[in-house]
Structure formats: structure tokens, C-alpha cells
## 1
Amino acid sequence: MREAVVRAVGDALIEVGLAGLDLADVARRAGVGKTTVYRRWGTVAAAVADLVDDMVETSAPRADTGGLAGDLRANAELVAETLADPRQGRLLAALIAAAREDERTAEALRRFYAARIAVWEPCVTDAVARGELPAGTDAAAVVRAVSAPLYYRFLTSGDAPEQADVTRAVDAAVAAAEAGAYR
């Protein structure tokens, strides 16, 4: 039931935005009783927060290629694939818009990104341990430096990042990290 409701929340958010999201409609879309939805989630904000929590729980694990550039490339490609996915890209855009309107959604989205960054931080800490990067490199900053240009392209142009964007983001982050810019 949770899976159906979470999917329905995402579908509705994509179609009507946060302002148009209605728990009765979510129940109908999910094929469950609206009493069940109201009892378990209670508010639209709670349902959207659960959607984001589900995204954290079901996100892909990090790759371990054995080298910083390969690991960060795997991360960047995952971000690019997610943004290119017809549903996932639209859902992330809808969640970002919803976060501007609702603090609970904003907090859930911050938790999502914090969790995703935490999953990928070992790419950087492992690179420091191997001597690829200077000691004291801020792992979260390096991971954000890879993802940020990809999200920026998506949010400002509406286009999913291309392979050239992935390469540029990874190359720039690696070069900056090697130069000590993230210490």
C-alpha cells in the first residue's frame, strides 16, 4: 500500500504541483481508501515527505571503481540518467518547486540530498587515503561540485545533462580537488 501511495503522490506532484495535490486524489490514484491515506499520512506535506524518504531508501548505491575520477563519473552518470528519466526528472523538478513553497518538503529534500552525498563521500575519502587528493579535502564539497552543474543545466534549460556535461563536471571537480580547492 505504501508503495502505491508514494507512487501516486509523485504522479500527482508531477501533474498538478504541490498546490493541487489532494490526499483524496492520491488515494484514488493509488487504489486505496482515502481514510487509510488520511489516517497514515494526515497531510499533503507528510505524504510528500514520505515520497522523498522513499527516494532515499530506494536510491542506487555508490560505485567503487577504485579511482576518484571513475567513482565521480559513476556518480555524475547516475545523476544525469536520473534527470533524463521522463518520470524521475520531472519528479525532481516538481519536488524542488514544492520545496520553495513548503518547509517540510524542503527539509525532506535536504535529507535526500544529504543522504545521497553521504553515500558518495567515501569516493573522496578513499581518494585522500590513496594519496590522490590532499588531506583535509571536504568530501561533501567535491561530490556537490560534480552534481551541481548537472542540476543547474537541467533546472535552467529543462534539458537533461549530456555526456559532455558529465565529463566537464567530473574533470573540473577532480582538477579543483587535486589542486586543494576543497580543503
## 2
Amino acid sequence: MTARPVTIVEVGPRDGFQGIVPFIPTERKIQFIERLAATGLERFEITSCVSDKAVPQLADAKDVIAASQGVPGVHGQVLIPTASRARQALAFGARSLAYVLSVSESHNRNNVRRTPEESVSDYAAMIADLPPGISLRLNIATAFDCPFEGRIGTEQVLTLLDQLIPLAPTAEIALCDTTGKAVPDQVGEVFDAVISRFPEVRSWAVHTHDTYGLGLANVHAAWEAGVRVVDAAFAGLGGCPFAPGASGNVATEDVVWMFERRGIQTNVDLSALIEIAKDGACIPGASAGGRVRKALAGCA
């Protein structure tokens, strides 16, 4: 095995669940986190503090945050779109936050009802109020494509990051293919540009969707550019409610299979993960994706 392992962030409990209409019992969500942690996964996006009306599936954020803290080995981040939601997450006991804003104005207005510039100011205010010991990630949505504006230029991403990175240079930065329309050469180009421009950033991550079947190829392109943190959702669950047409995340089991076949450590038990993915695909209202689950387990 190579000495350059990849870190997988399991986002199924947030991104994978958020678009499912029938409410998943909180106890069931925690069971999935416990089982996924037992496979060797350590980093999770466990929930999001957002409007209960906008995303009813995540109305139990407080309980999920509290319960996940009792799961051994789990480092759980909470997605937050505003400084006020960050305060809520911290009040619920969160110790790791992932702030999200979009490159495109149309998507940011649709998602959080403000311009990207207003989100930058809000992010700065949030950082100023953060207590010690809180880990921080910055999720840059529509970094490659916007459902309303189309393909996003690399310079647009760089211009936004020019404003954001000096505010918290130690934050992990994730570039997100919100619509799943990115292609591998574009992913490589954008990551080459940002990694070169911002050498002070210690950790870059990639978040892909598999709408057009290129989620895994885009993960590989990001890896080749130097990215070592990958978001994925078991059973390929997910899809952004605020990005019309976007399908699920790249499947965690697909990511594990690809890297292990390349000789790159994931420290994840693929056989155990497949069994959990089979159950995830059967959640009422879920739309599952991925290929490895079907190839190895014969699951329809």
C-alpha cells in the first residue's frame, strides 16, 4: 500500500438523508452512524442546522449531534449556512462546523437568501465569535457548475477564495460539484489553480455528485491534483434540494473500491460497508446510486 492514504468523509447522514421525504427515525440514523463507524470510517457529516420547514428530515439535529458524540471514533461535522445557525449548532454541542456558501449568486440566493458577498461577511462574523477548539471546514458550493448559471469559471472560484481564505487560513476547504456536471479535466484544472494560489491551505477536499456518472472520475481527478479528503455517501444517497436535477453523492463503497484497487489505503472494511449500503438503498423514499454495491452484492 502507498504511504499516502485518503480520508473519506461520510456525508450520508446529512447530504444522503436530507432529501428523503419520509422521516427516518432518529434512532435509525444513529444506528447507521454506528455501523458505518464500525467499518473504519471516522469522519462524518452527521447533520445540518437549517430551517425545519426547508429540510424537515434534519429537524432532529440536536438529538443527532448529542447521540453521535457517544459513538466511539466518530468525528462529526455539522453543516451550517449562516452564523446564526453556527451558534445553534454550538449550543447543541457541535465541535466541528462546515460553513457552506456558493460561488454563483443565483444558487446562493436560492440556498441561503443572500449574495455570496453577504455570506462572506457572515462567515467573517462567525469566525470572530468562534470559541476555542472548534474545527472548521468551508464548503464552496457550485465550484464547477450552477443549476441556474451553468459552468463556473476558475477565476470566479479564485476570486471568492481570495476573500474567504485569509479569514481562516487553517480551515479545510472543500470544492463541491453541486450539480454533478463537472468533468475530470475541469476538476483537475480548478484544483491545480487553487492549490497553487493558496499554499497556506493545509487540507483540500472534494465533494462530487454522480448525476452524469462522473462522480468517481472526478474524485480521481481531484486525487491526481493533490486532494486527499473525499466526501461520499453510502449507497450513493443524496441530492441537493436546492439544485434542481442533481442526483446522489458519489457512493462511499465505490470510492473505497477504487482507491483500494489502486493500492491506496482507506482503512475501511468494504465487505461490511456493502451490507450497510444495501440497507441504505432500502430506506423508504431513498434514491440510491453507485455501482460496486450491485456488482459485489447482486443488489437490485
## 3
Amino acid sequence: MTSHRPETLEHAPLGRDSAYPEHYDAGLLYPIPRAANRAPLGISEEALPFVGEDEWHAFELSWLNARGKPMVAVARFRLPADSPNLIESKSWKLYLNSFNQTRLESREALIATLEADLAAAAGAPVTVELFGVDDAALAPQRLPGDCLDDLDIEVNDYTPSAEHLVVGEAIVEETLHSHLLKSNCPVTGQPDWGSVLIRYRGPRLDREGLLRYLISYRQHQDFHEHCVEHIFTDLLARARPERLLVMARYVRRGGLDISPWRGTPGETPPLPLRLARQ
């Protein structure tokens, strides 16, 4: 087993051929420091402008019980936004697959192992829940608030630009969402499809401008977590709301989906919540 240490993407398993492990190996987890991507947004690790979590679901989790019988579950992980590292998704998948031929005494033993390994990689406590594959807690739901997607707008800009964000003088409290979010993996260029929810109290956001802004991520290459932080910091700077919550629900890839959220202190998202296409 290798030790956990943040490195650059140059050595990450993402975008490379990989031999899938047959036995447990915590050293497969690949941490990536958050600070490098936050610095260009003016985010200081010592004074984060938000609270939040990265919520992951794993749909390809299996292990052997003490008698060698395969067990399966869906796992939900919650990684705090103030952890020094995020965990690269392909390394996470390889790590989870390393349990496929590993015998464990109980579900509790699996949870304890997952929490310890993920916390070591992230540099902060990570919570783990296991669900049966037909558990009602995983049933799809709908995002609350008004959907922006039926607005008839012209779009010519597909790289993030806060110039699209326009606010009025009226103070409102509203929840808006869109299913048109798309960004791209910063290593492989593969598309990442998602939905985004914005809940705020402050000067009214022009809805057409907000939708153009969200669509402008369409050719942007970045991790899911950093896209959400980018949206949050742009909205905070341009609209100066009293309260703000930004939450994305990304479609799964490789058996993993991720739903990061960032909010001003005191804000909490409508969790747990999963969408039909997740």
C-alpha cells in the first residue's frame, strides 16, 4: 500500500490505461490539492467564502463477505469543502473496485475502512452511507424552484463570463435551476452533464443573463467542484446577495456521480436529492 500524498495531474490515473485491481489497495486514491484551482478565483484557503460539501454516489460497489459471497450496495460519500484535497474520480473508482475480491466481516467493517481511507486522502473526515440497490432513499426527485430552460435566448458565448450576470434593484428571495449545465473533464476532455440549482436572497438576477452565464460553461474544462465554486464566486461578486446557495447534480460517469454544493454560512441544500438522469 502506498501513502496518500497530493500530486499534480501529470501523474494522475485519469486518461491512462489502468489495470483494475483485484484486492484492496488504499494507495490507489489520488488526492489533488484544491488550492491551485481556487487561487485564480481569488479564494483563500484560510478564509473560504463558503461552506459546502462534495456528495458522491457509487453504484459499482461490491465486496465479499466472510464466507466469500459477493455483496453489493450503493454508497453515498460526503467530503467537506474545507478539506485540503479533493479525490480524483478515476482513482476513486479504481479504489472501490479493489474491494471486489476482498473479504470483509461486515458492512460496518467496510464503512469504517472507507471512511478511514477517504479521510486520509482528503485530509478531513468523510462520511459514508450504504444503501441497498432498491432503497427508496435513492428514488429520483425534482429540483425545486423555477426552471430557466424554456427561456428563448440567443447564445454565442461558450466560455465562462460573469459579464452575463445582470442584477436589478428589487430585493428578492427565489430558487432557480437549469438542466443545461455542461463542462468538460480537464484531463480527458470528456463531457460532464449536469443540473444546477441557485437559491439566493438579494438583488434580482436577470434570468436570461443567468441562463447565458450557465450555458457559457459548455466548453469550459474543469473539475465539477471547481465549476461550482466558480459559479458561486461570480454570483457573490456580481450580485452581492445576502444569502446564496449553488448546487450542481452531475450525471454519473464510470459508476460515480458527484453533487457539489457551496453556500454562504447558514445555507444548507435540499439533500439528499437525486435526479432521474443521475
